[in-house]
Amino acid sequence: MEWDSDLEDLSGGEEEEEEERLFAGGLGGPFSIGERLFPGLPVPASYGLAVTDAIEPDHPIIYVNEGFEKATGYRAEEVLGRNCRFLQCRGPFAHRRHPLVDSTVVTEIRRCLENGIPFQGDLLNFRKDGSPLMNKLQLTPIYDDDEVTHFLGIQFFTEANVDLGSPPGSFAKESLRAARFTSDSFYRPVLVEHVGNICREFCSMFQLSDEVISHKILSKLSPRDIASVGSVCKRLYQLTKNEDLWKMVCQNAWASETTRALEAVPAAERLGWRRLARELTTLEAVAWRKVTVGGAVEPSRCNFSACAVGNRVVLFGGEGVNMQPMNDTFVLDLNAREPEWKNVMVGSPPPGRWGHTLSCFNGSWLVVFGGCGRQGLLNDVFILDLDAKHPAWREVSGLAPPLPRSWHSSCTLDGTKLVVSGGCADSGVLLSDTFLLDLTIEKPVWREVPVSWTPPSRLGHSLSVYDSRKILLFGGLAKSGPLRLRSSDVFTIDLCKDEPCWRYLTGSGMPGAGNPAGIGPPPRLDHVAVNLPGGRIVIFGGSVAGLHSASQLYLLDPTEEKPTWRILNVPGRPPRFAWGHSTCVVGGTRAIVLGGQTGEEWMLSELYELSLASSAYNGN
Ligand SMILES: Cc1cc2nc3c(=O)[nH]c(=O)nc-3n(C[C@H](O)[C@H](O)[C@H](O)COP(=O)(O)O)c2cc1C
What we know:
This protein is of the alpha+beta class. The chain has three domains: 115 residues, PAS domain (Beta-Lactamase), CATH 3.30.450.20; 77 residues, Monooxygenase, CATH 1.20.1280; 325 residues, Neuraminidase, CATH 2.120.10.80. Helix content is 19%, strand content 31%. It has a five-stranded antiparallel sheet. A five-stranded mixed sheet has the order 7-11-10-9-8, with no helix packed on it. A four-stranded antiparallel sheet has the order 6-35-34-33, with no helix packed on it.
């Protein structure tokens, strides 16, 4: 398919064009640029993009964006190949245009399409559920030499205040028309008579300067839509190649915390934001590889905790021979030309422990919580600034601490708060609580998240942060009546809500629950959960029952309306074992699995790297 006569020259060939198409199908995200496009006017709830093939008979749809899917309730696969007029019918079972749809506007659309000229106007449409939508529709022909090859439709949807119950007589029709044609109405049709190039004299967007289009409009779109918009014409294609634009798009889509983490990876920087956005969206470059590093972590141990600080992997504590609790700190700098483990002399180390958690916050800070020490279970908190001139652990005595515990799960929120959930308390009792501690306050107070219901108590589960403030809990060894079973359940909670509450997302372990959506990961504990920019989560490893391979990767997007598990097939040599407490994500582009070879002996000079972007391969 030829989008633009010069496109091939500009893009460097079919391969890249194919890549753009791949990318455009990869992800989505809610967006709203109506406010920017129409300042001062009521903001449409969402807008859609639809591209039709103008050479095929009856203008079949060849692309719709996620905004279209969300606003109309129709999924892309339900509408591809069809003419857009189905939106004029009330719901999927209606076969006739609804009588309240203004036939003069439809006739005008037909005339514009026949003459290959742009159209702009308003008409009543219907969602899949039959509810009415006002559609401020802009149609733009795409020319290849003298021939119209495609039409681009932009739909600004808003709620329609239409009484569908009343008979579709002339009064209802007239009053609807009158309401739309008042001088200050947002829906006033603008029918434009102009034959020729789409980029002139029609859509106010195309009269704007490149700078304004890039900064005020394109930068607000999702990566997937930028890729689609770039396919429309030469000018937009060139604008969407700009690296600064892509950086803004990534920041909007992934939050600046993630982009900062990505910036810290030199190889990712070399790859460029456009390519990185594509690879992290499509996951086309994900691969396993084995890495051998120098140095040694001695004495040997298991049940330590590992965490990434920038491009460094930090390992703290663990269980030595004869269940000896360790309290030493090792650092592996992956930016070094020949990375090697180094035992770092850190002042005032916490008491030795294993089964604890180690998390990173505020850039270069580490926080240790709980675990099992010489005297039993712990609930103390220690922090360390790894970049301090003389690094030293400092105990933070948080008031009202949670019960001492081990094999709990932790994460950090906003780069400032430690979140601790579940684990195993004294006498083997499993816990189900969730606590927060603000580490930026001098005398912090632990706060238990007040909820009316908690997921069943458990240990060895994972916590992942998405949408900056939501937490996803997966798996673990969970209490199930009188038994303890490995779980594959997924729960989420929005910690910024006034009254946060746990929500069961998917799984099979809950009473009354059906099969997990999609091909879900088999139940497991002490697995690895990797957060991808944009909110998706990858699960692998851990202790899995039966003959299932622990290295199989499972992908879930909790931001989807009906989250569905997908299997991610990845080339390269995966580790045979991967444990949550000994794996960490470095710079948002690679998960480093320590000692995954035997599962028994911890070979810490052999690492397995799951690189999410191809940059992670080249050099660093
Ligand atoms: C790219 C494109 C997008 C369109 N989007 C819509 C739409 O969102 N809603 C709608 O009612 N009609 C839309 N139309 C118009 C219809 O597809 C159709 O052309 C119109 O109803 C006139 O043709 P008809 O009289 O044969 O139905 C779109 C047309 C094109 C080419």
